Amino acid sequence: MRTFTVTRRPRYEGYDDLHGTARTAPDEFLILVDDAEIGGTYWCSYNPAASAGWGWNDGGLPGESWASWGPRGLSCGHPSREAAEHAQVREYVTDPDGHDRQLTMARAEQQAEQAQRQAEWEAEEERREAERRRERLGDDEPGPTVWKLPAYYALYADSGEVQAVADWLEANGVEDVSGRHEVRVEQRATRRAAVYEVPIWVWNGRSSATTETRVVTIATDPTASRGLTPRQLLQKRDHHGHLSHSLPKR
């Protein structure tokens, strides 16, 4: 005569309350036969088999009760977790080999579905990342640098120049610029673009040392309403040892 060892374990790690409290329901547990999962049990606030016809009304309790799933299907209305477990075990032992085959097939189908969902999720993430990259960098190739704003420029330039540069950046939609990195203006095939670094913000509202590159099409060259010209900026950089270029005519 074949014998079976029936045990249980929490369905979800860290949720192992068999009985619950006045405020929380008992946790879900799996039913194991010879260490193989065949189903599980959970607490119901009502009997779905009695009220809606879902599953088997094996226990007969109409309100708060225990339910189980497994070889029996959905078995409802039980007065205890043990009674709900027994409904599945009784069904399992009538044809253990047959139920094992069904469980194996069901697990294989579930794993295949999970693998497909994972592949679809990864493909979607790749698509989104490519789209984010296009939004940040554009589809065109980098071009020659025709102008640079040095790193830490605001630390040594006078306030008028700093404000003029800030006005130009804002007018061209160049936002969240990292002052620790230079801003380059590139002449690309069909546009003039500002290339700059933006700090990556972390959960506590502080910026990290990590940055990401962004590219924005600029509508105006880096001149200023206060009389600041690109050549004045270049002269300022030359005085501090930075490489300078002048803007070519378009």
Question: How would you describe this structure to a colleague?
Answer:
- This protein is of the alpha+beta class.
- The chain has a domain of 84 residues.
- Helix content is 34%, strand content 24%.
- The protein has 5 helices and 9 strands; from the N terminus they run βββαββααβαβββα.
- The strands form 2 sheets. A 5-stranded antiparallel sheet has the order 1-2-3-4-5. The protein has a 4-stranded antiparallel sheet with strand order 6-7-8-9.
What is the topology?
Layout: E1 6-10, E2 29-33, E3 36-44, H1 48-52, E4 65-69, E5 75-78, H2 81-94, H3 96-137, E6 145-149, H4 159-171, E7 183-187, E8 192-201, E9 207-217, H5 230-239
Antiparallel strand pairs: 1-2, 2-3, 3-4, 4-5, 6-7, 7-8, 8-9
Biased composition (Basic and acidic residues): 125-139
Biased composition (Low complexity): 107-118
Region (Disordered): 107-141, 221-250
Helix count equals: 5
Poorly predicted tracts of residues: 224-250
Proportion of residues in extended strands: 15-25%
Please write the string of helix (H) and strand (E) elements.
Answer: EEEHEEHHEHEEEH
**Arrangement of strands in the largest sheet:** 1-2-3-4-5
Which whole number gives the mean pLDDT? 86
Please give the number of β-strands.
9
Largest sheet: 5 strands, antiparallel
Biased composition (Basic residues): 237-250
Biased composition (Low complexity): 107-118
Region (Disordered): 107-141, 221-250
Biased composition (Basic and acidic residues): 125-139
Provide key terms for this protein:
five-stranded antiparallel beta sheet, alpha+beta, 34% helix, disordered C terminus
